[in-house]
Amino acid sequence: MEALKVEGLTKQFGGLVALNKVTLQVEKGELVGLIGPNGSGKTTFFNCVSGFYTPDEGHVYLRGKEITGHPMEKICESGLYRSFQIPRAFRELSVLQNVLLSQPHRTENLIDILFRRTSDVLVNRGKEYIDFVGLTHLIEEPAGNLSGGQQKLLELASALMKDPDVILLDEPMGGVNPTLINKITDLILELNRSGRTFLVIEHNMEVIMGIAQRLYVLDHGVLIAEGGPEEIRNNDEVLEAYFGK
Amino acid sequence: MEVIEKAGSMGRKGGVQTKWVLSVALLVLLACLPWFIKGAYYRHILIFTLMYVVLAQAWNLIGGYAGQIALGNAVFFSIGAYTSTLFLVKANMTPWLGMLIGGVFSAVVSLALGYVVLRLQGHYFAMATIAFNEIVRICFANWRFVGGAQGISLPLHIGSFYYMEWSNKTPYYYIMLFMAVFITVFIYVLDRSRFGFYAKAVKQDEIAAKNRGISSFKLKQLAFALNAFFTAMVGTFYAQYILYISPDSVLLTSNSILIAVIAIVGGFGTVSGPILGAIFVFPLTEFLRAYLGGQAMGLNYILFGAAAIFVVLVEPNGFVALIRRIRRSFIGVKEQERSMEVGGVEG
Predict the structure, then answer these.
(1) B304 found inside a domain
(2) Least confident of B126-130, B301-305, B312-316
């Protein structure tokens, strides 16, 4: 069964059709890229899937269950984690606390929330994920002191803490220095190999073509191509969308 | 690295210990205060100051932690006052039980109200609560069953525990002291629980918090309900202490605003802020009114307003932050800030 299935997703802002009947799917364990020129609707697509916007039409299924139009927090708890293009770390909270905010919330009852601290099991898990992304030396540091690239790593650790079925990454390499790009790429690949499912928006073609098994191309809110990296590279419509006729 | 960490945690332990010693000393002092302060007027000020500590602490939950500037707490206060008083007058029920029923009823009302108004953001929420306050006040003033604009005088049963009435102010003082200590400890625990942890996250970036699966709406509802519960209990106490309630004494929007201002001036979203605020604001208003009242009507309000403006300009986070800043500049404790542990995580 598909981990994520989107059918006929449409979103309009006034007269502008930002997304026009977008249909795509991501299989469990896949790493799929979503590319397209600026303003093609990639982030709007993420916003509609993750509950930030309510789509006007269409359906979103997570592991076969419909999540269309659910509030963000519910979609997150259902198993879909979405990162933002500009990292939204909690600047005044420490790295560890940032990660721990992703602990499971659905099972918490009133007593847990009012009187109990996060269990040691979860704290240790959080520390493991921080170690995985290589931020252990900054564990007590307020997230606001981290560099842009480190915040992307923090976002990845926070995503893992949620143990989601599907991870949506919005430009994980955007504004990151080349060394760190390699590191983030390696981490994503390693996670994918261990069974994590990704849908990644990325502008860095070299990187996304290198890691994605399949790609979807959006242009003006319409899916214009789908296929493996090689197919996409040779697709005339894609070249036209990027470079014009 | 490890050595530094150890030293840091030891330093903190020392700090925590002094904090505990100071708290216990303060508590003993407060418990003994009725032996030193005999004048009825001064005792009255003490009781009211403590009352405002509780009210500001309750408001701290919704205003400070949940970040929603609620300006209708007089409604919850009067729900408490009216519920217990009506049960007392009409059914001869003890106010102790009435206090609990009033608290629960008030929490239920806050949940219903919050279901609608907590969807509003910022100023809109504040305005909606002011409107609610006024609506309830006008309704109560025209509602026969609750005494209308004339209000209700409580029946006299002086010197009775069952009726929560005493001729002496001491029992009232201890009730209020107990409530003040209770709610402060409650908030201290909450501050370090997941509630405090999540609330801080929601206040920093609500969308990012939702994106982590935190239901900010539920968190606000919880804070609003707890605020309503505690505020209502103080309402019952007020009715039993003054023995007269009317829409013009308990339902004024200015009371709602005073509660919020006390917490804001002291420093909201902290455990000790509302206490400092109440200690500063209420006795100041009362003394100024008592000593200058006749000659300079309204001077207390001017000074009070000036103090509020001063605090907002100099240190928007209130007295607590001001004191912290002064202490830091004197001792140069940089570590202070770093050891600030936010709930949910040890160290």
Answers:
(1) no
(2) B301-305
